[in-house]
Amino acid sequence: MSFDLLARHYRWMEWVLAGNKLQRCRTAFLGQVEGARNILIAGEGNGRFLVECRRMLPHALITVVDASVRMLAVARDRLQRSGLDCHGVEFVHADALSWKPEQSAYDLVVTHFFLDCFPRRQLEQVVANLARGAAPGAVWLLADFQVPVRGLRRYRALLIHALMYAFFRVATQLPARSLSQPDDSLKAQNFTLRERRTSEWDLLRSDIWSRDEVHSQPLAMGVSGRGAVSIGCVTPCAPTAGRGLPAPPG
Ligand SMILES: C[S@@+](CC[C@H](N)C(=O)[O-])C[C@H]1O[C@@H](n2cnc3c(N)ncnc32)[C@H](O)[C@@H]1O
Predict the structure, then answer these.
(1) Which atom belonging to ligand 1 lies closest to the Cα atom of 126?
(2) Which among 82, 214, 224, 234 is placed 20 to 30 Å from 16, CA to CA?
(3) Contact predicate 39/61, CB 8 Å
(4) 50: CB partners within 8 A, 6+ apart
(5) What is the pTM for the complete model shown?
(6) What are the residue boundaries of the structural domains of the chain, listed by start?
(7) pLDDT digits over 208-223, tens only?
(8) Top-tier CATH class for 4-233
(9) Out of 15-24, 51-60, 129-138, 216-225, which region has the weakest mean confidence (pLDDT)?
């Protein structure tokens, strides 16, 4: 599986197919995480969210993990061209299924249009892996596709998903053949849904989840980025322990 071939085309393809709709989903809750200091963005792709995140949080440490070296390069270029401060942004080339984030290091985890890449058997694993890096009280932002429960909108969504998965299967050898919802995997990691906004006839969702303050993960520092190649970093590279975010509404 690799998004390398698509990296340079991703932006115009998104613009043609969805205009600004996906970007609105990605940034829907950005205004609610102003206190984030240590951010993990998994499967960031070409960096559109990263730029807005950096604009909003100029002093946060940000770790961007992606399995596509070309996507990471495009994301880094985009950030540099934006004129925003790139210091404290680390780009990590790694498979999120095996990469181990520093335990409890992040107060914000972001997975936009990323968890839909995984079949059910891998979804639980990737969520558990990323959740390892989330501190108690951490927030998880998630934008993705979804399947409406009933009606015409359900069949519309299923048709769009079928076309989308067929395309990505050919273009990237994506392992998933259909959409698996990550809700149960997030709940299993002590995350609770705070708010969900849906759009496009319930085809798209933006979620804000937060981790219960009390859970069983011990705070252990010093196990950083195993299974990864850091391909670009301005000191400080290593994320520090999360400070927790203000409680989201709800
Ligand atoms: C569908 S794109 C989404 C990109 C972007 N987050 C967005 O909002 O459009 C999925 C991204 O996840 C990355 N990806 C897919 N599987 C991955 C894995 N196992 N580990 C890390 N990154 C992965 C791909 O390289 C790609 O950049």
Answers:
(1) 19
(2) 82
(3) yes
(4) 41, 44, 62, 64, 75, 78, 79, 89
(5) 0.88
(6) 4-233
(7) 999 998 754 443 333 3
(8) alpha beta
(9) 216-225
